[in-house]
Amino acid sequence: MEMRCSLLVVVSTALLLLRLSVVMVTAGGAREADQHGRRGSALQDEKTFCSWRCLMFTLQWPGGFCLSLNNQSLCRIPPSVNGWTIHGLWPQTQSCCRCWPMFPSDVQELEEELSEEWPSLLKSRTSFTFWREEWQKHGSTAACVEGLNSPLRYFQICLKLRAQLDIQRFLEDAGITPSCDQPYQVEDVRRVLAPHLGDHPEIQCITDEQGRQVWFQVKIPLSRNLTVGCDSHAEAGGGFWEKSALDSSTSPGHPCPSKEPFYYVPIEHQQPFRPCG
Ligand SMILES: *[C@@H]1O[C@H](CO)[C@@H](O)[C@H](O)[C@H]1NC(C)=O
Ligand SMILES: *[C@@H]1O[C@H](CO)[C@@H](O)[C@H](O)[C@H]1NC(C)=O
């Protein structure tokens, strides 16, 4: 009697489990289908947005940057900033999404260093706003690569690259220093930078009010694995240089002309928009 009773319990428990598992399988099935759906579109996104091969690491020279602004009184160069600063690290593709929010706490531990190496040079924009714009527009697309897949990692890598690509020192070692009087030839600068930045950095100038060429930016192509140089022609469909040409139509800069000397103006903290008095 006791045994039958416990058998009954076992059987009914088994039935209950069976029924439960049917429910679970059904729910699981629905969940899985849902996941497949999402996984499907995520795969599609990954194909579209994660297939980039090259990145552009862009550094700006604060002295020249201030002269690139329409309203030069908007410019400020923090006292601690005395060298090339980061503009951004840009995968060469369209932006995948702007829906990955970033908060000050994400980069809190880097804040001091970022403020020095990646300051906003606009009075109207805080440095954090600049970082967040760069993360949302470019960083979230770079996040396809392990090691770049969070704001903290992305900014850490950018700081590492900045330390490694010390343009000012490379130039200084070759006797090329900021000057109001001494113009330079783009070919000389290219030759000095080639061992460090590869053969194809874009050396960008703006034309100042006196019609002189002023150096303000360098775009350094990197491969997906962050080594300097990227063979854009190996990319299926090409488009890398075309796209960057398109980009430059909205930016004030242009390649420094090879036939005209250009100025590498000093950083003037008090009057950043009048570096040469
Ligand atoms: C330039 O910016 C300053 C500071 O924001 C402003 O006061 C001034 O009106 C601006 N000038 C022009 C021409 O937009
Ligand atoms: C990085 O990628 C480039 C291009 O794909 C390749 O030629 C190079 O060997 C890679 N370097 C390292 C260290 O993996």
TrEMBL record:
<dbReference type="GO" id="GO:0005576">
    <property type="term" value="C:extracellular region"/>
</dbReference>
<protein>
    <submittedName>
        <fullName>Ribonuclease Oy-like</fullName>
    </submittedName>
</protein>
<dbReference type="Pfam" id="PF00445">
    <property type="entry name" value="Ribonuclease_T2"/>
</dbReference>
<dbReference type="GO" id="GO:0003723">
    <property type="term" value="F:RNA binding"/>
</dbReference>
<dbReference type="GO" id="GO:0043202">
    <property type="term" value="C:lysosomal lumen"/>
</dbReference>
<feature type="signal peptide">
    <location>
        <begin position="1"/>
        <end position="27"/>
    </location>
</feature>
<dbReference type="InterPro" id="IPR001568">
    <property type="entry name" value="RNase_T2-like"/>
</dbReference>
<dbReference type="GO" id="GO:0033897">
    <property type="term" value="F:ribonuclease T2 activity"/>
</dbReference>
<dbReference type="GO" id="GO:0006401">
    <property type="term" value="P:RNA catabolic process"/>
</dbReference>
<dbReference type="InterPro" id="IPR036430">
    <property type="entry name" value="RNase_T2-like_sf"/>
</dbReference>
<dbReference type="InterPro" id="IPR018188">
    <property type="entry name" value="RNase_T2_His_AS_1"/>
</dbReference>
<comment type="similarity">
    <text>Belongs to the RNase T2 family.</text>
</comment>
<keyword id="KW-0732">Signal</keyword>
